[in-house]
Design brief:
The protein has 468 residues and is an alpha/beta fold. Helix content is 40%, strand content 14%. It has 15 helices and 17 strands. It has a 7-stranded mixed sheet with strand order 4-12-11-10-9-5-6, sandwiched between helices. A 4-stranded antiparallel sheet has the order 13-14-17-16. Helix 5 packs across helix 12, helix 6 packs parallel to helix 12 and helix 7 crosses helix 11. The two termini are 49 Å apart.
Length: 468
């Protein structure tokens, strides 16, 4: 005889609790989510939860939902159970903003139109070339273990050659391979900066949506931007202590898409050298220009070891490789390499060998040429759709590279409400407030991930929601 549906839900919840997947203190999925998961009415879910509560396993708490308060073993004990969930907020690393956590979860939902995702479309993944690279790496493979603390020597040589083409004269010994640029920022925060020091950065900045520096005890200080990015004069007015560092994103800034001009780059470097202000230059989008190559990196003008330069293959090739790099003074790289070894004993050896083949064989440049063409098509389609559907409600600038268009909505439109309604209607956007400490009337639109037809459809849906 088939079990009633509420019993199926009860057995499922009990199994999750018994197996330890939902320990004491865990919050159950919402009634709506459970109803959707089991294709039942919410009344059926309520019946199941009431029975679980009667058994003493769960308890409804105001403002928190339904919480696991016991498991089948703790019901037999008089002492209170261990509650790991009470430890969740006690670690030193801060949690992401709730909106950021929700966006991260929604970005894995393939049913949504992804106008949020900072990742190249699967359509642009060079599958055949990747298969050929992995086959070659496999055929040449010999027994291997942990890599050199700074990373695979062949990869670091290939990265050095790649950077030399950008005007950055650096040896392989001054390069550290990391698992993406975000790991580089983490290593810098725990290895080079003091607690209570100040990190100057653009306002807005994608670093505001993370907790990397704040969790290490640093304070973020947003600096105003203009059409060329961060404004040096404002930094000069704010800079009072030597315990500071400047983080900047000159090429196709995230989230605004801004491109910094060559004179502004030199001005920024001169200010930093005079004020003894180290610079972290994040250039993960620098290879993704469309109209013309960007100016040389700030690091290419650095003659005093003032700049740490970050690069990555995550945006331009594939994030799954988890390959990025830091270039800087050798003593600094040695320090960061030691911390990386303490953290994970090095990035994946196979990924490093594959990345070395991509960079040294010419395949990477060939791939970039195709990606730039496709991004231009996507950008132009997005701009055309914005003009058609949101021209009466918003304004924006045309980006010259990267992934993003920074869309400023008219002041009578609620961005938080638009974000919620868009998500409810199958469209994911990033509200500007996650990139700044103050209220933003913008949202970040990514044209890199969704198919062109979905880009257009998603923007049209946003228009319909505004009109409604």
């Amino acid at each position: 005889m088939k079990e009633p549906k509420y019993k199926v839900i009860i057995n499922f919840v009990k199994e999750q609790i018994t197996n330890g997947n939902w320990p004491v203190g865990s919050r159950l999925p919402s009634q709506r989510d459970l109803a959707k998961q089991f294709s039942v009415n919410r009344s059926t879910v309520v019946t199941a939860l009431d029975e679980l509560a009667a058994d003493g396993l769960v308890e409804g708490k105001l403002g928190m939902g339904t919480i696991v308060v016991n498991n089948t073993w703790t019901l037999m004990r008089s002492a209170p159970p261990v509650n790991w969930n009470e430890q969740v907020g006690r670690g030193t690393h801060q949690a992401s903003l709730s909106t950021v956590q929700a966006i991260n979860l929604a970005e894995s939902d393939e049913s949504l139109i992804q106008l949020s995702k900072g990742e190249l479309s699967k359509d642009l993944f060079p599958l055949e070339d990747m298969r050929a690279v992995l086959t070659k790496v496999g055929q040449e493979l010999e027994p291997f273990g942990y890599e050199d603390p700074k990373g695979n020597p062949q990869l670091r040589e290939a990265i050095a050659q790649h950077l030399n083409q950008k005007g950055i004269k650096v040896d392989a010994s001054s390069i550290l391979v990391v698992s993406g640029a975000l790991q580089a920022l983490h290593l810098i925060s725990i290895g080079l900066l003091e607690k209570e020091s100040t990190v100057f950065l653009e306002n807005p900045s994608y670093l505001q949506s993370l907790s990397t520096f704040q969790s290490a005890g640093m304070k973020l200080h947003g600096i105003s931007m203009d059409h060329e990015g961060i404004i040096p004069e404002v930094i000069k007015e704010s800079h009072q202590s030597k315990d500071s560092v400047l983080y900047c994103h000159p090429n196709f800034h995230n989230p605004t898409g801004t491109l910094m001009g060559v004179n502004r780059r030199k001005e920024l470097l001169k200010l930093a050298e005079t004020a003894q202000l180290p610079i972290i230059e994040d250039d993960v989008y620098g290879d993704l220009w469309m109209d013309s190559p960007p100016p040389s990196p700030i690091k290419s003008h650095d003659r005093h070891g003032n700049v740490l330069y970050l690069g990555s293959l995550s945006k331009s090739l594939n994030p799954g490789l988890r390959i990025g790099w830091v270039a800087g003074p050798e003593a600094v790289i040695d320090r960061l390499a030691d911390l990386k070894m303490q953290t994970d004993y090095g990035s994946s050896s196979l990924s490093q060998r594959a990345a070395a083949e991509w960079l040294s064989s010419g395949l990477y440049e060939k791939h970039l040429a195709n990606v730039r063409k496709q991004l231009e098509v996507r950008r132009n389609a997005a701009l055309e759709a914005l003009e058609k559907h949101l021209g009466n409600y918003a304004e924006w600038e045309k980006p010259e590279g990267g992934f993003f268009i920074w869309v400023k909505m008219h002041p009578d439109i609620s961005l938080s409400e638009l974000y919620r309604k868009a998500l409810a209607n199958g469209v994911l956007i990033n509200p500007g407030r996650i990139y700044a400490t103050q209220r933003m009337q913008h949202f970040r639109l990514s044209f890199a991930n969704a198919p062109v037809k979905d880009l257009i459809k998603g923007i049209a849906i946003i228009e319909s929601l505004i009109e409604d």
